[in-house]
Amino acid sequence: MVEYSQNFLLDRNLVRKLINKSDISEGDLVLDIGAGEGIITREILRKVGENGKVIAVEIDRDAVSILEDLFSDYPQVDITKEDIKNYQLPQEKFKVFSNIPFNLTSEIMNKLLFTQNGFTTGNIVMQKEAAFMYGGDQIREPNTLKSIQANPFYEFSLAYHFHPADFIPQPRVDIVLLNIRKRLHPLIPENQKVDYLNFTSFLAQDRYSEGRWRKLFTKKQLDFMRKSYGLMDKGISSQQTTSLIKAFNSFVSYTPLPQKELVTDAYMRHKQQASKLQKQTITSV
Questions:
Q1: How far apart are CA 129 and CA 180, in angstroms?
Q2: pLDDT tens-digit profile of 5-19?
């Protein structure tokens, strides 16, 4: 099925090298999303050892059969035949090393970064363009709404640039390994994460000081934030993360409750709208 199409890594030595450079260690719980025929699963197993656990999530029936045969003697490998979009992520601490289906990048990243789960660190093979969208100014690229929403809670870096010949079939786009690490000390308290996602999603469609901003702040407040926080008369993705965090803190402290309720479920509505647009694009292709 096109929906689950994937570019598979070929070189076991390269995979081993990359996993050895990661922070995966003895006894870890590690998730391999879109495990295919197990080239990554096998090397994760070497690192986590007998006291660790690998969860290989794969939807393709033939690939699952291969995985079950390959790891039948390894009880620490859990082969899970399930669509990752429906899979319930572990609540205990876990890491990810995965070559994901590129057309599911948004769904997988949203699930890892913005749902309640035990994700701590990840090394994820993805298109360079997608990595830029999440890393934003942390990897010296322009911010996007995705990076603005993720940056207070995660650190991003590019760990490796692949060659097209590393995959079968060979991709026609640049592929990288994106390293993700959950911040030990988030820039926004974890219990305000949903509020921050709603706040930024609500403001995403307007430039600074336009309609939606004016629904949450007075003119005096906006003038103060422009001068003191460095906010610019541009869209939200052009702002610095630190400036938006300060604006969010002002929202939490000073915006009256009726105005605060305007942002309720804004993140969910934005996700639904983005999903609808994506389906329309796929249908039109």
A1: 16
A2: 689 999 999 999 999
